[in-house]
Amino acid sequence: MEECGFQGNLADIPFAQLIFSIWQRKKSGCLKLRKNEVEKRLYLEKGKIVVKRGAFPKKNFLQTLVKKKP
User: Fold this and answer.
1) Which of 10, 11, 39, 67 has the smallest count of CB within 10 Å of its CB?
2) Higher pLDDT, 8 or 48
């Protein structure tokens, strides 16, 4: 699951809508998120997010997922 096949911009589709669509269709693969030089990947199996250990800091994992733009 290292390569991501589709590309897009979160300015074109709200993140929540994208995740809902993936969940609803039970898709598997990875969602690569990049801002400037920082890149993170969310892996999905049958629509569910599977987090690889070390992908996010343990202490702030939930805040990272729900952080709102200022």
Assistant:
1) 11
2) 48
